[in-house]
Amino acid sequence: MMLLFVFGTCLSAGLFFVLLDVLRLPYLSTAKAMLNTTRAEKRAAKSMETYLMTIAVRLSKYVHMDEYKRGRMQNILKATGIHVAPEVYQTYALVKSGAILLGVIPCFLVFPLLSPFVVFLAVMMYFKESGKADELLKEKRERIEGELPRFVATVEQELANSRDILAMIESFKKNAGEAFGNELDVLAADMRSSSYEAALTRFEARLNSAMLSDVVRGLIGVLRGDNSMVYFQMLSHDFKLLELQKLKKEAQKIPPKIKVFSFLMLMCFLLTYLAIIAYEILTSLGGMF
Question: Which range has highest mean pLDDT (22-26, 27-31, 55-59)?
């Protein structure tokens, strides 16, 4: 039995390496290094993710997307820092969910009632992976929109002395957050290499934010020679109101949490009093007997 086990292990390993050579798959270290360069997260890729991504790259040439969907997905991936093709991104979600779906086979043999749960888990994994870029873009958009009121107020003050949009962006990005600072770096480089108006339009298209669209519209008006001081004053006022509404919504979420902890503290006090009363009753009963 030991010899059969060793023979089966060696045969499986040999067939695995031969298959890797036939399919011309890269080494694990090489695939990990390539995958880490495409990731938006700072953590390193795991071995299983590397294998799945390698398979996804091989199968992506069979996936076809229409021009509109591909262009939209490409803009989202570029904005979130995921440097892969839209076909590879879509195929990776299918491969990862398919790997989980393979668990149905042993479930049918061992515990059939667990099979629907595995299928449900595979479907949920597909929707999670396919919508991961949208979630990252949403978080990035919210962080940037949180800094837009301060940026608009800065532009409003600078317009009284200068109309140099690039200088305003260069000055503000020194004190901007990480997400907004990186986008302003890209915008400044794009403005130096092309026309200012085209660079601002591409900046607006990358994030697809309504608040940012209002800001870009005002900056383009400045470039065209319009007197945009009143526009930015009104925009700054509107953004401050939106910021106050957002803070009020966040503040409204706090009282329910306080009520829960207050209820727990009340229950602790009641249990303490009940324990003391029960102890006194038992002590008095013990003295009687």
Answer: 55-59
